[in-house]
Amino acid sequence: MQLEALYHVPRDKWAYAYDRETVHLRIRAKRGDAAAITVVSGDKYDWDGTCAEAQMEVAAADDLFDYWEAHVKPRFRRLTYYFRIESGDETFFVCEKGILPEEPLPPRGNFEYPFIHPVDLFEVPAWAKDAVFYQIMPERFANGDPGNDPEGTKPWGGKPERENFFGGDIQGVIDHLDYLSDLGINAIYFTPLFLSPSNHKYDIVDYKQVDPHFGDNKLLKELVERCHNRGIRVLLDAVFNHCSREFPAFLDVLENGADSRYAGWFHIKSFPLEVVDGIPTYDTFGFYPDMPKFNTANPEVKAFLLDVAEYWIKEIKLDGWRLDVSDEIDHSFWRDFRKVVKRANPEAYIVGEVWSDSLSWLLGDQFDSVMNYPLSDTVLEFFGGKMDSGTFSNRLGSLLMRYPQQTNEAIFNLLCSHDTPRLLNCLGEDKRRMKLAVVFLFTFIGTPCIFYGDEIGLTGEGDPDCRKCMEWDPAKQDHELHDFYRTLIGLRKNHVTLRSGRYRMLKACRDESCLVYEREDSKQQFTIWMNNSAEPRTLTLPFETDDWRDALSGNRVKTDGGRISLTLEPFGFRILQREL
Fold it and tell me: Cβ neighbours of residue 527 under 8 Å, at least 6 residues apart?
């Protein structure tokens, strides 16, 4: 057994309270190395009376490791434990003292989870697990009030450029709420709505004023009320990393230099404020001089921004925030942000923009979720034909083991956004591949999000091309694709198993493009079969029961000799379900 591959620490994603009575434990081993792993646990004050064993299961695997997991319910909310690892004629014990050849004498030297404190539980809002999000850039969704169009507004549907406007606004969203409800949307994420000189509004001048080109504060409140009446939750974009060059405090620094009372609001390297060889003398978003970076450690800045966060939660009964460039803001700020937001609305959903491993923000004291771009990249590589199903399965396993289960259940899964090429473009404008990716999105663990227009076939390369106007001409919409999205959304919303059931890969191979995975809970089991290749494929798996149905057609699917064999057309799929 390769002992150096064994890894466990009694914290973070390796040992955490899932709820008020359950602790999840994970341990890593070399892939295929361990035949069985048992967690032996009990109460440190009554080891003999509470000691119990739980067999662990392989919850996920990647190229190098198996990740074993067990769910333990301590009798008195305290837990002390060690692991027994078996492989052939070898047995080792893993505890706080290290890896031992003989069983430790408990409880001294055991790992400990000292106590399940309800106040420390990482509880993600339950509604987020049931949400289907729709991302809207208000400037490009619909022009409901031409009277508030910016000067020089272009005709709707023109070529998007860095600085042009098409007149989209809040009234346009209100006018199309029927469309969103019919599609099955029950949550909207809006890119910024506040006063800003740009079309994207990520350079904010006034954080408490809706941009007049979108409407006003009263209209935003009406929009949220109308959404809530339909059962639609609303997230706004919190741009707290940086502001606009026209932000009043920054204008004061430009005018008064080091003597400005706001000089400490920003990260200023030298005066005067200028751009030298393309680099500003003050920190910015990227190197854009028009987006100066806030010093969020400054008490006045922190108080100002936290007041903004609380204001909109209370003013319009906002359901949460998406946090722009959140990884470039200090953790102390986000810890206070969470306290303020959750105090104003305990059910608020906090989603950070982090493009890589985000565990340090997802330990219960900062965010509820992050935009899951690592999953996006993996999905697009596989369904784009650049990865075999075995590698895909391993990558998924690695991603799932990055975070605790409650995070995985509500992580913000997307396939494209305002910052990336459109889904169709990412997959070579092959609608068959796109459909497979969409099936995966709506049958995988996590909270799915659609970028506006993907469902009717909108195309676009990277920014600004991905920010095209929504197509409202029925003759130019892909109605078959729209109906496909509507069907998959309905399937997910109608079956809690697809939202919170256990995920497990059943079939995936190196040098192969097909896969089968399942979602299962105590009441239902779904299996999703996919052929990500240009040739027909027949897949066969052992299933003893004969009570399967096609989840979309309702037709029965029979077993033959304890097996199910399905022939899938090129880039085809089947979703089977059965009651348990």
Answer: 506, 516, 517, 518, 541, 548, 575, 576, 577
Gap between the Cα atoms of 128 and 347, Å rounded: 9
pLDDT at site 106: 82
Run of H or E including 276: strand 275-276
What's the mean per-residue pLDDT of the chain?
97
Burial label, 163 (beta-carbon count in 10 A; 0-12, 13-18, 19+): exposed
Nearest to 488 by CA among 454, 538, 524, 533: 454
Q: How many CA atoms, within 13 angstroms, populate the side-chain half-sphere of residue 49?
A: 6
pLDDT value at residue 544: 80
DSSP of 473-498, one letter per residue?
-GGGS-HHHHHHHHHHHHHHHH-THH
Within the chain, which residues score under 50 in pLDDT?
Answer: none
Q: How far is CA 470 from CA 137, 146, 228, in A?
A: 10, 16, 23
Half-sphere exposure of 260 (CA within 13 A, CB side): 20
Q: Of all residues in the chain, what percent are helix, strand and coil, respectively (each to 5)?
A: 30, 25, 45
Q: CB within 8 A of 191, min separation 6: which ones?
A: 135, 136, 137, 138, 200, 201, 202, 237, 418
Q: Note the helical H segments in 244-319.
A: 248-256, 299-316
* Pair of tokens at residue 257: 């230099």
Q: What is the pTM of this model?
A: 0.96
From the number of C-beta atoms within 10 Å of its C-beta (0-12, 13-18, 19+), residue 557 rates as buried
Catalytic residue positions? Answer: 324, 353
The pair phi, psi for residue 75, each rounded to 5°, is -65, -35
* CA 341/CA 348 separation, integer angstroms: 7
Q: Cα separation of 485 and 424, whole Å?
A: 14
Q: What is the CA radius of gyration of the chain?
A: 26
Domains, the chain, with CATH or none: 3-120 (2.60.40.10), 133-242+299-497 (3.20.20.80), 243-295 (3.90.400.10), 502-579 (2.60.40.1180)
**Distant-in-sequence, close-in-space partners of 483: CB < 8 Å, separation ≥ 6:** none
Using omega within 30 degrees of 0 as the cis cutoff, is the peptide bond preceding 299 cis? Answer: no
- β pairing state of 548-550 and 447-451: unpaired
